[in-house]
Amino acid sequence: MSGKQDKAFDDVGSLVNQLDLGGMRYREFGAARKPAEHQPAEHRPAPSAPDPSATAARPQAAEPQPAADTSRLRSVSAGSPLAFTFERLRRQSIASHVRSPVLVLDLPERHAVHADRLPRNARPLRELFAALDIDPQQGGG
Amino acid sequence: MPAPRDGGGRLTGVGWLLLAVLFAVPAYVVVVTPFALEWQALCAVVMIGAALLMRHAKSRQMLIALMVVSLLASSRYLYWRLTQTLPIGPQFDGWDLFLASGLVFAELYAYVILLFGFVQTAWPLGRKPVPLPEDESSWPTVDVFIPTYNEPLKVVRPTVLAALALDWPRDKLRIHVLDDGRREEFRTFCETVGVVHVTRADNKHAKAGNINAALKKTHGELIAIFDCDHIPTRSFLQFTVGTMMADPTVSLVQTPHHFFSPDPFERNLNTFRKVPNEGELFYGLIQDGNDFWDASFFCGSCAVLRRTALEQIGGIATETVTEDAHTSLRMHARGWTSAYINIPQAAGLATESLSAHVGQRIRWARGMAQIFRVDNPFLMKGLKAGQRICYANAMMHFFYGLPRLIFLTSPLGYLLLGADIIAAQGWMVLAYAAPHVLLATITNSRVQGRFRHSFWSEAYETVLALFILWPTLLAFINPRLGKFNVTAKGGIVNRDYFDKDIARPYYFLFLLNALGFAVGLVRFFTDAEHADTVLLNVGWTFYNLLIIGCALAVASERRQVRHSVRVRVRLPALLRRRGAQQTFEVSTLDVSDRGIALDLPEALNVEPGEPVQVVLIPQRSDVWLDGSVRRAGHGMLAMEIGEMNIEQESALVNALYGRADAWLQWRDMRAVDRPLLALREVARFGLLGGFKFTRWLGGEIVRLVSPRRQGTATQGDG
What we know:
By secondary structure, chain A is mostly helical.
């Protein structure tokens, strides 16, 4: 026997049924989300008044992690400039140097871009940041 | 009784008043009419018989009728006690009156608690979550606060990772670890996973001050607060916030505190998931009952609060060490309402050792006594009658230390000191007391049966009574006395041992009662004139011995070497040899943060030490967890999880703790109370505790009288 199970797994549905909460409509947000992906920009302290004791997530070295799943990078819409940049990152094996998911871009498909330990002079990465209008020094979007 | 808030009321205020007057006249007659012994005995039999019949009825109205009958029996007993049994007169001395007054005080206290308890639990609201609006853009912004002080990071990590997976629009959710320990490893972890690490310059006002400091740095419309070891399910916000959106007067929505590890009672008595634990009565029934009266209150964790309500009262209350209840009391007094959703949407670790458990309860007791002084619910402006009763009962409950001690020692006044604590014949006492005690037991069993088994309250209270007596008294005299202590979680108990420090007060109580029992037996056979009174007191003393024995059994700490708690749960999973293509569909048997037990597929032959990989809930996750086989055989594979990166750890946390229905069925697995079986169980533990204590005491005596052996043992230990 191999392959993924096709039995439905629905913890929310189970809860709703057991408690007879027929009117509940549940929305998924977090299940597909990775840590570090959630911080909303408009919900942060204003940049003009930084709070020294509150440190939001920033790209930073962390404990070694397994290599990133580069197959995700290929599933961006084919032919788009973004896909092209992703593909170049992949071909240059930059992704294989990735260690920690400390910078995550808020893409429609929720693809993670791992920026830690990425060569700072990596041209494709800078292009990527520019394409998405992100300042890498200010952390993930 | 006022109409429920959700609109079930049919009678107007005048209607209730008429009904009360119609009821009051016959009730007065029932309470005050004196009977001779045989008629009182008949009355007792009728009342008990009626209660036994009524307890089987399912309707809420019949339950309330049962409560009324029980209160009538108790009122009749107390009226008789106060008017006919006090030792006043030339044949009694001051000592008799002193001891008798103490017992009457304890009985009056128990009566008030019984009455208030019935009011509290008469009609649990059973509120259901309110669906959120379709338009997600109208959903409020939420700040999640996870306060911590000295807890290790390994305890806090799962809570943070589960909070990251809360199903809420990402642009409306922000997670903050409020680290009063100002620890570098916490800052690094927060930065790694992408949550906000909040610190402050001092630790003023402990947890309350920590939250208040964070309130000034954040802006979310709602504040969700989780103790650092309370791991939320992903559905927490969607099941709670709708209530606040539907009713803008709701200041807070509280959910139960659920524990997936055994507390000291459950571990040391081996009752985990068999007998409801100490907290289940409160979270299973009392808070739901409070909700009927718009008096469910904040419990410090697993709750969502409205920022505007908090700001209106100046933030979390800092004057007492139970800042949570105090805060909601103030919000209620300002006209805000509250809600309780009795669905476990977070879970955490119970206290590991009895000493930690006692420490936590001392804090609660002290804090409630402080509130009773600082903002007495009977005197505070702005509260409704039901709220006054619910809050008062929550606070007065913690004054049980002295009454419990009196109940545990009163018969000794008669047996050892010869004091007349009840100036009446033994059979008469029995005829009046039996319906009072039995009806209260039957009614409580009917009301609380799913959440507290009969006679366990005595056991729980006895363990704590002597420890909370002084702090509550002190706080009652001066509310400023006492400081906040943090409850230790996540520890281990290295070996079986008898916690003699915790049990010390109960040695003396046990030995005193054993002495009283022995003296009583002798008197029973030698003092025929007072045989009935002696027998009554001997029986009472024997019951006390069993209850104290239970406390001693709990003090016998059982070894707990497992660093992480295994949760028995059936989850779908995929299993494979590390790196292999072939995968096997399996189910988990239990899961912890260090290991997983799985069904072993017949086609998979693995050896201990072999590397394997697992995906938990593959329908939702594709993250493989690496590990190695610890044991395989008899249809079961035990896997030890290896080092995990954040993504893997998050996948494990979300599968194990973050499922919406993760804790739903735990309560349903326990048996409903059957009083006689519960009495047998408590008696068994009482005998066991007595035996363990006697064995320990024997060993201590042998050691004391045999210095040569002690010296040898010391050398051996060295």
